[in-house]
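for the writeup, i need someone to sanity check this before i put it in the appendix. the sequnce is what the collaborator sent (i think, or maybe the updated version? ugh). structure was predicted straight from it, no edits. if anything looks off just tell me and ill rerun, i have time this weekend
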Amino acid sequence: MKDILKLYLIADYLYFDENLYNKVKAAIDGGVTAVQFRFKGVDDGSAYEIAKNLKEICAEKGVAFFVNNRPDFAILLDADGVHVGQDDLPVLEVKRIVSGKIVGISVGNSDEYEKVKNMPFDYLSFGSVFATPTKPDAGEPIGLEGLKRLVEITPDVPKIAIGGITEENALSVMRTGVRGIAVSSAIMKSSNPYDSARRLREIIEEGLKR
């Protein structure tokens, strides 16, 4: 699990264009360890076709594939897992639906953690750490101090950080004690996704040495 979570790419439909698949392939070659497809407000037919193609890419390259908030897609595509938010289906129900698959949940503060701490999740995603252009409705950023507090109260839980993470701040994020980072625009909006992923992965590995 810990290696899967190192560099977690959110392939958001916001960045969908004719280069999406090539960007994801390049990012994986650069060091991405997992890909999640997030598709808010997209019709099921279009989303399923894209998700199927992304799953095939991930399977071919040997990295984990997740879908956002759609356990039915996870089953149909035989994805590695599904990620849910605080307002999505309860983790317990998702676990029942996708039996045996990885389930992650987003947590933005200690109150949200208290609500889910006894649920059968496999990992937590903390954030938004910084302001993010990908998810403007993510709420007030928790910052590095807020992230540290969440890490401190979850010592034995696999966890990643998300939200506004770049090459410039990734090392500070890793030094809070998370096992990895999730990014979207830092790679998907890059003119060179391979290089961006490679540099982020190097920073992650440096942060894990602490």
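Residues 7-208 form a domain with the TIM Barrel fold (CATH 3.20.20.70). The chain is about 40% helix and 20% strand.
thx in advance!!
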